Amino acid sequence: MAWSAATLSSTIRALAAADKPMLVGNNRLADATGYEWSAAGSFAGADATATGYPVTYAFDGYSHLKTKPNNTATTWYLLFNLGGLVTFDVLAILQHNLGTLTGVTVTLEVADDNTFATNLTTVATLSPAASNKRLVSLVLADTGADARQITAQYVRLKLVKGSGFTPELGEVILDRIEIGTVGRQVEQGC
Predict the structure, then answer these.
(1) For residue 1, what are the CA distances in angstroms to 36, 110, 111, 116, 119?
(2) For a disulfide at 15, which of 33, 126, 174, 179, Cβ 3.0-4.6 Å?
(3) How far, in Å, are 36, 131, 173 from residue 101 at the CA level?
(4) What count of Cα atoms within 13 Å lies in the side-chain half-sphere of residue 154?
(5) Whole-number mean pLDDT of the chain?
(6) 33: alpha, beta or left, given left = phi > 0 and alpha = psi -120 to 50?
(7) Which of 52, 51, 62, 54 lies closest to 35, judged by CA?
(8) What are the tens digits of pLDDT across the range 22-42?
(9) Average pLDDT for 125-141
């Protein structure tokens, strides 16, 4: 299915710029119907998920359980088929070892097909440098700098380093931002 993007509402952007409380709590990856590690970058290749480190650990809500591929490579992909079009506007990666590995670049990519050959586009780029602290992107953008909501079925993380490496990820979160409504929800008993 064709993915699409729309600029985030001016209200959400204004509330984020004003440092209002932000809630991200419904990981859209939890409903994925397909997922695997791949060195080839496509669901058409072999699943390279390490035994005992399933991809489900990336969205189980427990960041201490990690997923990883079964070998070393200079480029790894963590592939997701979301089972249908899903809308998200934030990416977070928790409890990773990417800073320890140094020199890793992470991109979030979307495409129209499970081989990631049609309409492949990068919507976020993160560089952990030498830190294993959580990585968060609140500005997903396919063009320009405006924060966008992305609606896609096929999503992948691309991890690249100049030498062979084995990434480990505790939690990968794709969600929609809720800003400035926490107080009202508590008052209403939600």
Answers:
(1) 19, 11, 9, 12, 10
(2) 179
(3) 21, 9, 21
(4) 17
(5) 91
(6) alpha
(7) 54
(8) 777 789 999 999 999 999 999
(9) 93
Residue with the bigger pLDDT between 69 and 183: it is 69
Q: Which two tokens stand for residue 101?
A: 């590995």
Q: In this structure, what token pair is assigned to residue 168?
A: 């480990």
Residue 183 has pLDDT above 80, yes or no: no
CA 135/CA 118 separation, integer angstroms: 27
Task: Spell out the SS3 assignment of the chain.
Answer: CCCEEEECCHHHHHHHHCCCCEECCCCHHHHCCEEEEECCCCCCCCCCECCCCCHHHHHCCCCCCCECECCCEEEEEEEEEEEEEEEECEEEEECCCHHHHCCCEEEEEEECCCCCCCCCEEEEEECCCCCCCCEEECCCCCCCCCCEEEEEEEEEEEEEEEEEECCCECEEEEECCEECCHHHHHHCCC
Q: How far apart are CA 105 and CA 113, in angstroms?
A: 23
- According to DSSP, the β-strands at 22-23 and 90-94 are unpaired
pLDDT at 189 over 50: no
- pLDDT interval class at 16 (50, 70, 90): confident
Write the single-letter amino acid at 153: Q
Torsions phi, psi for 142 (to 5 deg):
-90, -25
Alpha carbons 50 and 151: distance in angstroms, whole number:
29
